[in-house]
Amino acid sequence: MNLKSIDARKAQSLVEAGAVLIDVREACEFDRERIPGSLPHPMSEMRDGKPVTSNSSKFIFLCATGARTNANSPALAGCTDCDAYVLEGGLSAWKPAGLPIERQERKPISILRQALMVAGVLAIADFVLGTYVAPAWHLLSLLVGCGLLFSGSTNFCPMAFFVSLLPWNRNRPQLPGTTGIGQFG
Fold first, then answer.
1. Is 69 exposed, middle or buried (0-12, 13-18, 19+ CB in 10 A)?
2. The model's pTM
3. Which of the residues 28, 63, 79, 157 is marked catalytic?
């Protein structure tokens, strides 16, 4: 069973009437930016069968863009026994509607985004070094490409693993059973 999609204004009306916003993004995403009053309940916990509980008779599930909640709509419906909805467009639709957002700019960006930034820097370095220093540097893009292919096919990202070892990421809580890119599905 798929959940009904509602827009940001309708969601705000339901929240004012007592509905609860359930944010299915992972902890690092939630910590950095969220809707005031929303409750964190990462999708990885719901995949483990953890039910969503509250005194409310209505839930509104949201993620960053709506893609995660729409893709997992049947699983989300199974996590609750009350009326539940999906916020159409997620947080990306909430902001342009002029609705309130809490931001913590000083929180580190997600491991996935850091790994993607490293991949981008390596691709630029490959171009510059391969063009101006020695053509053998173009092998760097082969290495990065193979790593991305491996990550996509196994749901484990070695680059994300190494990025997670950097000093500013060491004290982050890790979700059980998740590594690298796999925690952002």
1. buried
2. 0.65
3. 63
